[in-house]
Structure formats: C-alpha cells, structure tokens
UniProtKB/TrEMBL annotation:
One of its GO terms (molecular function) is catalytic activity. It holds the Pfam family HIT. GO terms for biological process: nucleotide metabolic process. A motif (Histidine triad motif) lies at residues 99-103. It comes from Boletus edulis BED1. This is HIT-like protein. The lineage of its organism: Eukaryota, Fungi, Dikarya, Basidiomycota, Agaricomycotina. Residues 11-114 form the HIT domain. The active site is at residue 101.
Amino acid sequence: MAAARSLTTCIFCKIIKGEIPSFKLIETVHSYAFLDIGPVSKGHALVIPKDHTVKMHELPDEYLADALPIAKKIALAQGLENYNILQNNGRIAHQQVDHVHFHVVPKPNATEGLVLNESCWPAKTASMEELKAYHAELTTKLEGMGKL
C-alpha cells in the first residue's frame, strides 16, 4: 500500500503525468528531463526515470541506461565545459525527493553551481593494506553477482 500511495503523491510522478507543469527538455519511454525550478545555477536540469523507484540500486537497468545519455545531451546542448552530474540515495546522502533522479548542474565559475570544499568532501587517507583488503572483499562480491 505504501508504494501505491507514494505513486499518487510523488511530485516527480505528477510531473511525468503532466499533473504539475514543467519546462520539459527531453522525454523518452524511460525518462523525463526538465529544468529544476530551484536551480543551483542557470540550466540546472533533472533527469528522472519514469519508474517510481526510491534508490538507484533498485532501478531496473534499462532506466539507468537511458538516463546518462540524456544528461550528456543536456550538457552538450548547453555547451557546458564544466558541470556536475549528481545523484543522491537516502536522506543522510541528501536525497530530498523519494524518486531516483539525476541533477545536471552547470558550473560556470568558482562561485556558481555546486560548491564543494574540504569540509563538504572530507577525503581521508587510506593505507595500501586497507585498500588491498577492501579491494579483495569487493571484487569477490562483484564476481558473485555475475555479469552485469
């Protein structure tokens, strides 16, 4: 029941259905792209899969295969040299709408667009031993998943 309820209240599902107006850029069988009404910079666009899925790892592959070429077309159409493609999964990862979506955020200069600094991107130092151990663990899991 919760999934059906979220379909009827999801702002992105309503945009896809035309119940909420948008500045549509591209629409395919699997995706809908439009300008963000709260842009971080001029041209900030969203690419949303038409499948109502909350997190990217739950989304069927055909929707993922459609989304990035659309983001690329939007970046090319805008003539962007510098930009960010952003996708968040879960509240603590800054996801605000419970529907998978990709941001195409133009970065025209140092102050406009997505702004990150050391505190926003707290890189840590990892030892070669730590990396080697995690690499072995992760590749084993990936191999167990089979061919993608």
